[in-house]
């Protein structure tokens, strides 16, 4: 839950963001992998919110994402200052190099012409931190044989 709450902002600067989590015990085992430690779930939630807001405002999701990206020296919701933050520049380069808007227009035309077959396109961001939040989680041992 801690990792999910640390990543609930993904790469966006939402000034009024408040995240809450509740850990629950169940009587069944989890059927999911534990490799993401809650990070993929948190990113999925915030990206879904961005899609809903873009739909409500009738704005392209790509544009809404760009408008809300963190900037250099912004502070996250857990007060980490972002230095060497190159995401906005990378985002602009990827939108341009992928011909996103040209592809979007051809998809709109295809969807208008075809009643049953539809196409779509999306661009999403993901901020994945490295490391753990507790020092004891870094413990490890190794056995090395030198001959």
UniProtKB/TrEMBL annotation:
Official protein name in the record: Aldehyde oxidase/xanthine dehydrogenase first molybdopterin binding domain-containing protein
PANTHER family: XANTHINE DEHYDROGENASE
GO molecular function: iron ion binding; oxidoreductase activity
Span of domain Aldehyde oxidase/xanthine dehydrogenase first molybdopterin binding: 1-69
SUPFAM superfamilies: Molybdenum cofactor-binding domain
